[in-house]
Amino acid sequence: MDSKEIDFYSLGFNFIETKTMFVTDYKDGKWTEGKLVPFGPFEISPGACVLNYGQGIFEGMKALRAKTGQITLFRPEENGKRFKDSAERMLMPTYDENKFVQAVKKVVKANEEYIPPYDSGGALYIRPLMIGNGPILGVAPANEYKFIIFTVPVGPYFPEGFKAIDLEISKKYTRAAPGGTGFAKTCCNYAPTMKPAKETKAKGFAQVIYLDAVEREYIDEVGTANFFAIINGKLASPKAAGTILPGITRKSVLEIAEKKLNLTVEERDISYKELFEESCTEVFCTGTAAVITPIGSVVLEDKKRVFNNGEPGKLTKKLYDLLTGIQRLEIEDEFGWVTVLE
Predict the structure, then answer these.
(1) Does one domain contain both 115 and 194?
(2) Has this prediction a pTM greater than 0.85?
């Protein structure tokens, strides 16, 4: 799609084709050099491992336009590390982390015209994707792989923007079990969440809060985002012990809260019951797409808890302002997180 045809001020979180993608192939035990090519389809065997056994991983990143006009990436090296961890868990070849970041930069620069203006609130979403495209019949890893990076201009993931969303706690569905692939960003973790999301949205909720798969009591994640709560004045988040995605935004929020707001942070098991107690004063979720999204209420069957009259909490707003301020070069980046593209 021609960038001149896009209304950057009314973007949703939908697929819009851009011009250029990065592609490299893994054959005979090594990656090809990789190159920028026009965005478009490619041939794949019906026997491809990704089609038959789900051997695929991906990442989610954003390029932002600062008020100065500069283009920024937020902690891209962390995405490179997580991509490597996901590949190892899915028995796929790893891709050099430095080359990963360099490839991301090339794709963003090649699609620079698709980066939404600063005042639109949008971003250029970046999707690194690796698939086992070699054909295989038995349950075994592929012999050939394809690594692609493409981009899409997007608005906010939750249409509400920085407004509180309503969530339903599920005791019917779980997202991941101990010993599984919950920490890996693999495509097969996401298809099973579509049905719970559809069912809860039909009831008027924005997403599901998933509980642990063993006791059905401790919070894991919010759909495709990490969970946070202010409990007894401390910032708590479920511990990254293998069943939740180790979010880069999550990691950053924990550090900002501790170093910029002097909050005590806890990575621990959080019972859903704690959300219905007065000691829990604010809740929110985080992610590359969700950024920091306030949670206005949670529901479990006939129980409902409303936070701050359904409005964003004060600490949630402070964390949001600090995070987005750093990402858009409006607050000094004392952490060294932001990469500015030259």
Answers:
(1) no
(2) yes
* Active-site option among 62, 105, 146, 185: 185
Co-location of 141 and 227 in the same domain = no
Q: Are residues 183 and 287 located together in one domain of the fold?
A: yes
Residues 120 and 211 in one domain: no
Write the CB contacts of 179 (distance below 8 Å, at least 6 apart in sequence): 242
Cβ neighbors of 225 (< 8 A, separation 6 or more) are 207, 247, 285, 286, 287, 289, 290, 293
Q: Please give the C-alpha separations between residue 324 and each of 47, 59, 62, 78, 85, in angstroms, as whole numbers.
A: 44, 20, 12, 17, 27
Cα–Cα distance between 209 and 272 in angstroms, integer? 9
Tell me, yes or no, if 81 is annotated catalytic.
no
| Amino acid letter, 333 | D
Q: Which long-range contacts (CB under 8 A, 24 or more apart) does 67-71 make?
A: 67/118, 67/328, 67/329, 67/330, 68/329, 69/118, 70/329, 70/340, 70/341, 71/108, 71/109, 71/112, 71/115, 71/340, 71/341
The pLDDT mean for the chain works out to 96
Give 342's pLDDT tier (boundaries 50, 70, 90): confident
The answer to whether 211 touches 221, Cβ cutoff 8 Å, is no
Predicted pLDDT at 136 = 97
Domain that holds residue 177: 165-327
Classify burial at 342, counting beta carbons within 10 Å of its beta carbon; exposed 0-12, middle 13-18, buried 19 or more.
exposed
Spell out the residues 6+ positions from residue 337 whose beta carbon is closer than 8 angstroms to its own. Answer: 74, 75, 252, 326
249 vs 159, residue with greater confidence: 249
Q: List, in sequence order, every beta strand (DSSP E) within 171-290.
A: 207-211, 219-222, 226-231, 234-237, 265-267, 280-287
Confidence (pLDDT) at 29: 96
